[in-house]
Amino acid sequence: MSLTKLTDTVYVLQAPTNIGLIAAPDGQAVAIDSGIDDSIARKLLKEADKEGLQVKAIINTHSHADHIGGNHFIVGRTGAGVFTSALEAPYVEQPLYEPYTLTGGAYPWKELQNKFLLARASKVTEMLQPGEFSIHGLDLNIISLPGHSLGQIGVQADGVLFCGDSFISSNLLQKHGIPYNVNIHDYLETLDKLSKTNCNWYVPAHGTPSSNITEDLEVNRDKVLSLIQMVESLLSDPQEIDTLVSNICSALEVKAANTGIYYLYRTAVTAYLSYLYQLGRAKTEMDNNRLFWLTNKTG
Fold this sequence. Notes:
This protein is an alpha/beta fold.
């Protein structure tokens, strides 16, 4: 695992979750995300040192544990500032909110308090708005890319766009079963926005940097549209959400291998239900103290 140089000033550490590194003129550097744990963060600092760079800022594209898990280590070693969007900041500072949200607001039990869902906390230095952002002599462009999370951002520098989880490389998409998104409307709009950008390089959080993401965007869009159709079709018979998750997993031939993955799938499926509800194409009904989702035939 070593740094790949994309431009004179921009690097990527290709890992299970890719990390960006942008070199400033003064020898300091800005990391884009920090990986899932201390070991990845330690590797990033080691590789940066080989290039004569010191990480003095971290921009988190969003607050999921595999993107913020190295924050605490890097801040402790270098005093780096931490930057993210206003909607993601509370989760960076209070990471327990992530599994807490997945369980619907109940205290998460041990199975949901692992490094994949619960990072160590880090203090946010500044909350970023879309637009130009200057730091350590670098002129960056912050781009709003919501959908996968409520306040996800992308970071553009020197012709390179770090995209977070705004899309998954097409060769990896199938492995994700039910891709995790929390707002389907925003996710589709984000795909549209990316299709209109013009960058030399695009770096997804999961997958290989590419100079052309047209196919990736189309595959991600097709996946979302097919899931919308599948969910709506299944709602022709009233479904409780746990039954619906099971039916979708069976149709896709995927398995929720553990409690964490189950709750990620459950949240993702709920996002599709919310999307269809907002369009007037799905509704809820109560029956004997049980909540059912079904097609809204008048929608």
